Amino acid sequence: MTKVAVLGSGSWGTAFANVLADAQVADVRLYGRRADVVDAVNQRHENPDYFPGVELNPNLTATSDPVAALEGARFVVLAVPSQSLRDNLTAWRAHIPEGAAVVSLMKGIELGTMRRMSDVISQTLDIAPERVVCVSGPNLAGEIAERQPATAVVACPHEPTAVELQHLCKSSYFRPYTSTDLVGVELGGAVKNVIALAVGVAVGMGFGDNAKASLITRGLAETVRLAVALGASEHTLAGLAGMGDLVATCSSPRSRNRTVGEKLGSGMTPDEVLAATRQTAEGVKSSEAILALARANGVDMPITEAVVGMMRNEFTPAQALMAFMSRSAKPERYGL
Ligand SMILES: NC(=O)C1=CN([C@@H]2O[C@H](COP(=O)(O)OP(=O)(O)OC[C@H]3O[C@@H](n4cnc5c(N)ncnc54)[C@H](O)[C@@H]3O)[C@@H](O)[C@H]2O)C=CC1
Ligand SMILES: O=C(CO)COP(=O)(O)O
């Protein structure tokens, strides 16, 4: 059986490891830092912190020893916060098997370097981009842990590797498609978190579906502008990792990013919101990196700019709305 190591036993690491175990074609080992989580997965087939009452596949085993998790792995799946990926990888690097493909589940851009996660992986591990895969799409972890139906995209510049992972994670409730457009798939996942923050702000301010749909649609337009400028195909952004994920995240009260925005929109300060947020809301930090990336490439991203301004406490949600609505009148454009 193909061995797969999943490193990170938070929300998505646990749910994706369970998808792999349910697909029944891989031997899956989940690494977690916390002994109590590891014990609960092994003994009660549950991760009570994230999915209380949800029964995980009994064949899914967990360990708090990364070396044991990584031994013999054909795929190494990474599910940690984007901003800690580089440090985590540096610690794990020596134990990642030669020739293993490395899979990013992250949806963020590194602060400071403006790098996509696949780039951080190939740089830190000194491996070719063809060995790096990204899985993304409309994948709210809670729904997937409950085995509700979902689709996703498995992206890798080396298509056979994407197909190999596709077979390992295809199950009765999880339908993965493949793509070779790693740039488009990664940017779709990272930028949608920022747009979900903006949608959350609108919800928190008490606005309705017109405002939400407007932000989703113009959010997609600015995502496409950035992605195409960086070499992605605009078709990718019309697909599951672009529009699909944007719609799911912006519509779901389960989204951490949308929830952060909602709190901001309802009058809490950025500091108060962050103090009340326990899980990873990638858009908070990635919005800064995405805005820097946009500016470096001459791309206009007004919604991202508004989110950054609100998170920096430079202006209020009401001021951000005013700034957006009073932009110069122009023809509607999608993409560049
Ligand atoms: N939760 C979801 O619905 C989905 C999340 N993602 C992405 O997956 C990535 C991981 O997110 P989640 O699993 O939701 O996050 P989480 O906050 O639930 O879990 C993060 C995990 O990383 C571990 N970790 C390792 N080093 C860490 C450090 N230095 N600081 C904090 N935690 C550290 C934590 O112990 C924890 O197990 C993010 O990029 C997120 O955007 C993607 C799709 C769905
Ligand atoms: O990426 C996700 C859904 O695809 C999860 O979104 P949040 O991180 O906002 O919860």
Automatic annotation (TrEMBL):
Primary location: cytoplasm
EC numbers, comma separated: 1.1.1.94
Catalysed transformations (reactions): sn-glycerol 3-phosphate + NADP(+) = dihydroxyacetone phosphate + NADPH + H(+); sn-glycerol 3-phosphate + NAD(+) = dihydroxyacetone phosphate + NADH + H(+)
Subcellular location: Cytoplasm
A Gene Ontology biological process term: glycerol-3-phosphate biosynthetic process
Residues in Glycerol-3-phosphate dehydrogenase NAD-dependent N-terminal domain copies: 3-159
Positions of the Glycerol-3-phosphate dehydrogenase NAD-dependent C-terminal domain: 181-321
Pathway: Membrane lipid metabolism; glycerophospholipid metabolism
GO molecular function, one term: glycerol-3-phosphate dehydrogenase (NADP+) activity
Entry binding sites for NADPH: S11, W12, R33, R34, Y50, K107, A141, R256, E282
Entry binding sites for NAD(+): G8, S9, G10, S11, W12, G13, A141, R256
UniProt: sn-glycerol 3-phosphate binding residues: K107, G137, K192, D245, S255, R256, N257
Residue positions binding substrate: K107, R256, N257
Function statement: Catalyzes the reduction of the glycolytic intermediate dihydroxyacetone phosphate (DHAP) to sn-glycerol 3-phosphate (G3P), the key precursor for phospholipid synthesis.
The protein's name in its UniProt record: Glycerol-3-phosphate dehydrogenase [NAD(P)+]
